[in-house]
């Protein structure tokens, strides 16, 4: 029975166990319920619906018309109902039923009393030859704009992830700085106990107790101020995750600040990855595609307008018939075509220049950040040595004090100096992480 009870307690405690919150866990909170995240992706949905709007040009449409007139000298009635659809490249197909009786006012259509079926095929010849139309151009441009918006949103999300990650590691830094100050306070309590015992045995005067109590107050203040900074960073971090402190503490615990480099990459490889992943470069290539679509549509203006319409009818009484029309229009100067051709040529050159410029910026950024990472690693190596040396001096001073050949003021100073060296090392670890995050941002590593 006792074993069973123990297992129940063990399983209950396990079910409520906290997980260590790591950097990748940030992504779990990037969802549409998070207003900071939705702000980054909201434009995508607008562009997607804009695409649907332009797709409407290819919808099947119901076309119906009815006329009835009773003039003093003429009577007429006209009925028409059918379906129409754009098939792409400006080609349109329609099929309808119509009936016309009497003297028509705007056309000379005549049918039997049973009416007739009619089909129509609209063929813009040069649109077909160039595989483009206004509707196709509008839809294609809308699709490209959606792609650009997706890339821009992805860029915003990665930047947001970088900013929240920096805040996360800043929180871990504050946590360790708080712990270091608590350890400093613990040392003061240990000194207090030593002094108290020494006073009781007559080795130290009563004033020594006042000195250590004053130092304890000072160190409590340091802990309080560091804790304020920790809590401020904590609430800022939770704000971006869209979670409250109670729920976070129930599910997670924070780890220590990482003390190892998380990225080892050759410079050439880093540039290769950055060029491949660059969302701005991808956006510029999509913009090139946009210009190509516009150039293709403008190319039609180089030629005369030549539209062919083919009609076929079948009357239940008078049988079949047909009609063909040709619509020809030739602009003699073609200023519109020449002007847009020049615009699109220059825009393409500008895009190509932006691509080259962006690659140069990426290359410079990688070289700079990787050099900074290398420097930070060397600074950390020296800072670790400094902490070791400062700790040795502090330990030696503590032994001197306990032997009665040192003083409390000097020991307090050595403890503060050691703390400052540890704080400096912790800050250097954080700065290294910051630089590595910046490198990952330049590489645009997918989330």
Automatic annotation (TrEMBL):
GO terms for molecular function: efflux transmembrane transporter activity; porin activity. Pfam families: OEP. Keywords: Cell outer membrane, Membrane, Signal, Transmembrane, Transmembrane beta strand, Transport. Residues 1-17 form the signal peptide. The keyword Cell inner membrane does not apply. GO terms for cellular component: cell outer membrane; efflux pump complex. It comes from the Bacteria. It is found in: Cell outer membrane. The keyword Chloroplast does not apply. InterPro entries: OMP_efflux, TolC-like. Belongs to the outer membrane factor (OMF) (TC 1.B.17) family. This is TolC family protein. It comes from Sulfurimonas sediminis.
